[in-house]
Every structure is written in structure tokens, then in C-alpha cells.
Amino acid sequence: MLPLTYRPVPVALTIAGSDSGGGAGIQADLRTFAFNQVHGTSAITCVTAQNTMAVTRVDVLSPEAVIAQIEAVAEDIGFDAVKTGMLPNAEIILAVAQTVQKNNLQTLVVDPVMVSRAGARLIDEDAISTLKTHLIPHALILTPNRYEAEILSDQSIETLQDMKAVAIAIHQLGSQSVLIKGGGCTGDLQGTDVWFDGQQLEVLKADPVPTPNTHGTGCTLSAAIAAQLALSQPPLNAVKAAKDYITQALHHALQIGQGPGPVGHWFPLIQAAPLPPVTE
Ligand SMILES: Nc1ncnc2c1ncn2[C@@H]1O[C@H](COP(=O)(O)OP(=O)(O)O)[C@@H](O)[C@H]1O
Ligand SMILES: Cc1ncc(COP(=O)(O)O)c(N)n1
Q: MF terms per GO, please (predicted)?
């Protein structure tokens, strides 16, 4: 058996924002890459001052600073898959789209982050149209949540039928496939996602996990998809493996802070070596 240091290591890149609370954004992405046994690299687009209750400040980097980080990784290490998260303005989206084209990037997961789970607006209004016209057409997989899917399609989502119709409508924007995520839905639909790749329409179902601690679900899911693509899984298999990962992470979500806590990534470790009981 080859020692670990001589094995080829799959590499994924996240282009996203930093979450000081550690539950979403870059922090969730790198943790997800690690637990999927993929080396994680990052290009930070902005620094948010954020906790489980609110985003209190956002400092945005220049497009040049974002591109320099991507190029530094591309020139030396390379990557097998890339995901985008919070791209706060049109200039950064355009710069990322140009770099994606220049590097002929085929395995791109676009998580069109617009609104946090807590309802905070995360990108400018004109950034949404730039996302639609310039970045989404390059995506292998696009992963909008309920609210982002409603904005992108200009249709409302209440039922599974609506999710299917919106998946087909959003696919027209030019991504190779789309996954509409149902975390923001109510009742049975909460763990239900809909996949469409132009031919196959598939409903991916998990039982709703009864937890208030859902911070970072979308970031974790898209990072796990990118990790699985970096491990050479075909797109729908990557999505199914990532769905298993986020469902487990929801079952192990952390009760920290006063608002919705983050999903928990340690479940493989806890399963291998259970934690000692808590003493008062
Ligand atoms: N309470 C829950 N129970 C089961 N699955 C959930 C729950 N909340 C979110 N998910 C799943 O987590 C993933 C991320 O979806 P979602 O929470 O909608 O993303 P976002 O964080 O972008 O709003 C999806 O696969 C969704 O079905
Ligand atoms: C920096 C950053 N990026 C993304 C999200 C969305 O988080 P969620 O996965 O809970 O929708 C966030 N709250 N902060």
C-alpha cells in the first residue's frame, strides 16, 4: 500500500465568504472538504462579522484580491472541483466568471448564496442579474435554496410540483444541472430536494430532521458535492453522497450560540469513538 504522503490527493477550491461564527461560508466548506478526505483550498471574497443570530458587518475584498488567490492555487496546486458561495457584488462575480473560463473549469458547483438562513441579505441587487447571465451558465451543478430559486425563476414554491416546475425553469439559465433544496420548505418537503439535468428529474428525499440548528446547511451541501466531484463521482452520485453527508451533519448539529447553531461535521469521529458522557 502506498504511504498517504505519496498518494494522489484530490483537491477542491471554495470561493466564498468568511463566517466569524464558524458555521457557514469558508469555515463550513473547508471542514466539509476535510471530512470528505479532499484537500481544501480557498479564495476568500469577503469577511463577515457573523454569529448564530445576525450578520453585523461585511468587508468585501477587491476582485483582484479574489483572483490572485484563485490563480495562486491554480498555478501550483491545481484543483479537481470548485464551488462558489457568497460572491457579494457584480464585480467579483464577473472576475470569478472570467477566471473560470480562462482555466477551462468543468467541475463547478455554484451555490447562488443571496440570503442567509436567518434572512440576512448577503449580496447586492445587481449582483443577482450578473450571477444569472455570467456565472450560472458555467455551472455543472447549481444549488439554489427555496428563496433563491423563487428569485431566479420569479415563481413561488409551496409544493413538490412547484419545486419540479422551478427546477425545469431554472435549468433554462444554462447550468448543466440544478438542485432545488427544500430546507426552507415546511412539513415533509423540508428534507426534499429536486434534481434536473435536462433529461432526468429526480426527487431526493430525507426525513426532516427536527433541529433548530441549521446554520451552514447549504454551504455544507455544496462543498460536499464539490468534494465528491473531486473524488471523481459523476454529478448525480456526488449529489446523493452529499445529501447523506448533510443529513448526518443535521443529526449531529451543535447547540452553540443563542440562534440557530451550525450543523455538526464530527459524526464519523463520534461514530468511531463515542464522546464521554457530559458531567454536570
Ligand atoms: N430540517 C432539515 N431536515 C432534513 N434536511 C434538511 C433540513 N434542513 C435542510 N435540509 C437539507 O439541507 C440541504 C441544504 O438545504 P437548505 O437548508 O435549503 O439550504 P440553504 O442553507 O442554502 O438555505 C438540503 O439537502 C435540504 O434538504
Ligand atoms: C459567509 C457566509 N456564506 C454563506 C452563508 C449562508 O449560510 P447557509 O448555508 O446557512 O445558507 C452565510 N450565512 N455566511
A: ATP binding; hydroxymethylpyrimidine kinase activity; phosphomethylpyrimidine kinase activity; pyridoxal kinase activity
**Dist. CA 3 → ligand 2 center (Å):** 37
Q: Is 218 a catalytic residue?
A: yes
**Per-domain residue ranges of the chain:** 7-263
Q: Which of 216, 243, 261, 264 is catalytic?
A: 216
Residue 99, sorted as left (phi over 0), alpha (psi -120 to 50) or beta, turns out to be: alpha
How far is residue 194's CA from residue 202's CA, in Å, rounded to a whole number? 6
Tell the CATH topology of 7-263.
UDP-N-acetylmuramoyl-L-alanine:D-glutamate ligase (3.40.1190)
Are 221 and 31 contacting, i.e. CB atoms less than 8 angstroms apart?
A: no
Question: How does 96-118 read in b/e, with b if 16+ C-beta sit within 10 Å?
Answer: bbebbeeeebebbbbbbbbbbbb
Residue 84 a catalytic site member: no
Which ligand 2 atom is at minimum distance from the Cα of 46? 1
Active site residue: 22, 25, 219, 243, which one?
A: 219
pLDDT tens per residue, range 68-105: 999 999 999 999 999 999 999 999 999 999 999 998 88
